[in-house]
Amino acid sequence: MKKITVKNREEFTYYLFLYLKNEDEEKFREEFLELHPTDQNEIFKLMSNEKRKRVYKYVTAREFADIFSGLQHYEQKMVFSELDDSYALEMLNELPADEITDFFSEIPEHISQYLLEKMDKTEADNIKHLLSYKENTAGSLMTTEFVTVLPSQTVSEILERLRMEGTDAETIYYLYVTNDTGKLTGVVSLRELITASLNEKAEKIMKEQIISVSPLADQQEVSKVIKDYDFLAVPVVTSNGKMLGIVTVDDILDVIEEETSEEIGEISAVKGALDLEVSSMEATKKRLPWLILLLFIGMFTAGLISSFEATIAEVAMLAVFIPLIADMAGNTGTQSLAVVVRGLALDKFDRTKVFRLLKRESFTGLMMGIICGILVSIIALLIPQGNVILGLIIGTSLFVTILFSTVSGTVIPLIVHKFKIDPAVASGPFITTINDIIGLLTYFSIATALLHYL
Amino acid sequence: MKKITVKNREEFTYYLFLYLKNEDEEKFREEFLELHPTDQNEIFKLMSNEKRKRVYKYVTAREFADIFSGLQHYEQKMVFSELDDSYALEMLNELPADEITDFFSEIPEHISQYLLEKMDKTEADNIKHLLSYKENTAGSLMTTEFVTVLPSQTVSEILERLRMEGTDAETIYYLYVTNDTGKLTGVVSLRELITASLNEKAEKIMKEQIISVSPLADQQEVSKVIKDYDFLAVPVVTSNGKMLGIVTVDDILDVIEEETSEEIGEISAVKGALDLEVSSMEATKKRLPWLILLLFIGMFTAGLISSFEATIAEVAMLAVFIPLIADMAGNTGTQSLAVVVRGLALDKFDRTKVFRLLKRESFTGLMMGIICGILVSIIALLIPQGNVILGLIIGTSLFVTILFSTVSGTVIPLIVHKFKIDPAVASGPFITTINDIIGLLTYFSIATALLHYL
């Protein structure tokens, strides 16, 4: 396995492309197959249609499976359409069940149905079962390739079996002890197996109290278990104790990445449009609807202000502080939103915690509101056209704005989460707009009331 | 190892607390020590001062090490101050070097110096060495407890050694083949070792091309290597090939969490204040400075508008669209910012990519600007006091605002990243303010120029 560094990547790529061009199959295979799959993958992605076709010829379906499994879904779809049926099927047979399932859930159903019919029956049944789980659950993440041992097997028997048979399992670092009905009764880590004496039985060294997840558990919960317990894999077990599969830590790393993008999308209203690789047409198509929606929501704020047009016509100075109120509403609300979104992602919430958080955020908003309110009043006194009344108006409004924004930035995402509404409703810009309206309403109401003192 | 679920946690806690209260050491030890350290930890955190003191008496320093290592830094500091010297030192000796280092970098230097003098000399030297690495580098993350084997050792010799000696190593799933000068020459995974024939030599089955990181590598780079290659650990190696330690995947899970909080902090100006557990006083202390800073920056925008007071006094209607322009500036800028921040986190950037992204975002901004600009012009025509000129003013301004905001939301974080300026400068609110200023400046400039047509 050769290592590619940033420095020599271009060189590697250059030579590999040259071999392809010269149709030097032997040289290509020799150099290419020695690379780590991740590097093979990176180089494969740079290839033209023609070069890719040559790769399918030079590299066996079995060898190609590793490359395929590292591609993004949209790349997989493109590549898959270039493969002939028998090559594609042979390659699929090499892939772990969870990856096939992942891929199948992305392609049209008639194609996946067709492939399932052509595939090995046991494997096909397996995948059909996995496909029946909802996206983002432990069931859809798990792989069914794991190692089981019997309670009565000894350490040396197990080691001998692993040595002789090898294994297709995704990890052999945990061995799952199941009885004849498939019920999970214990777990032995390979570490424990290696350090146990050779004639010890599995049932003697296994841990009997097993930390597992249900196939219906949300991926966030699975990720939390693996992170909290520093596991390399967690077993997926039905309510009656039957073991279905395992979710491994490398799958969780991908889950975490996905969830982070979701969190950030939530705060910044770019849900599902964080990809760097899409065209500007694609990016526009994903982001523009949000902007248009926000534009219409923004018209509400405009409508609100227009009802105070008479006030503004009398004291134009008042318009000066509109962006200040609006921006502070946005800033404070987003701070609270970020706290809650991050908190929900780390799954730290029960009733007591929600209550404690609400209390904390309210007090925080109160203190920040008082201090910023006083500060801005003083500034309003000091500026050229400033006076006490202006200070009072803007100070009070800012206080209300900050207090309200902190609370709404906390409560709205919590409600959305609790009632499983689309989290986008709680995204930054929406909360900002609500806070804007409250802030500006307060501002202009007080201003209109005190107009003849200004 | 017993499993605690949400359902039985309270019951477990109740009984354990009862045993402590009744000073029933035997019962407490029996039940408590059978729990997974993560669960021991959760229950320990709920204990009063008095109960904790009893735990230190009932549980040996060796056993307590696991609990200690799962605590947050601030909890570790509190607990540590409650331990007597010999217990504390014995416990430290049980902890992996990377965790001691982590803890020592959080406590006053005179205390860590004192402890280092009292500790076992080899371990102390080890930790001094680790402490010399800058925070967030591979060197500061790594642990020095790993398994090395000699090239000439056979599979059965290595297995025998692991079985006899056991090991304190953080992972035994990779065995590192080093020659007599400590130079890393190969890696054997335990999986390969298990499936190899017993009399094979390590040098025969090892992978010679090793993917490693430098001790100075940023934690983000380390995390990327582990994620991309699906590793359980990566060796940390000096430029002359000497192996210093390993970084394991569970450390990386913590790194990713930390980096995510940073990303979100960047977008929402709550840097370092996302913790749910702090008091409102603490939260205010961390978040208020940002708000005050943003308040002062907001005064610039106010100042800018005040220079157009005469225009507003003449056509009060113009004030109505101030929040719309300001909010759209914020929304568009934040979308681009989120794309870049996420992209930088996943480390996908070289010169070509930066250029491509800039081009894409500019086009995206152009298209979104044109469409939103036309839309808002039409709306401005349709509202009661609307007319063509107002439509022209607001449409053009919104177009400029969206185009500029998309570009600035892309360029500013990239510049900040490139020149390693504090990323907070590129946070959402700061970019929003700049975009506000440009948007409103355009709006009022055009409005002032076309004033006598309105």
UniProtKB/TrEMBL annotation, chains A, B:
Q: Which Gene3D superfamilies match?
A: CBS-domain, MgtE N-terminal domain-like, SLC41 divalent cation transporters, integral membrane domain
Extract the signal peptide range: none
Q: What is this protein called?
A: Magnesium transporter MgtE
**Keyword Zinc-finger carried by entry:** no
Q: Which PROSITE patterns match?
A: CBS
Q: Which domain of life is it from?
A: Bacteria
Query: Which species expresses this protein natively?
Result: Anaerobacillus alkalilacustris
Family from the record: Belongs to the SLC41A transporter family.
Q: Which residues form a coiled coil?
A: none
Subunit info here reads: Homodimer.
Q: What is its subcellular localisation?
A: Cell membrane; Membrane
Q: Which UniProt keywords apply?
A: CBS domain, Cell membrane, Magnesium, Membrane, Metal-binding, Transmembrane, Transmembrane helix, Transport
The UniProt function text for this chain reads: Acts as a magnesium transporter.
Q: Which residues form the CBS domain?
A: 142-203, 206-262
Membrane protein topology class: Multi-pass membrane protein
GO molecular-function annotation terms?
magnesium ion transmembrane transporter activity; metal ion binding
Transmembrane stretches in the record are 288-308, 320-341, 362-383, 389-416, 428-453
Principal subcellular localization: membrane
Family annotation (PANTHER family): MAGNESIUM TRANSPORTER MGTE (PTHR43773:SF1)
Query: What GO CC annotations are associated with the protein?
Result: plasma membrane
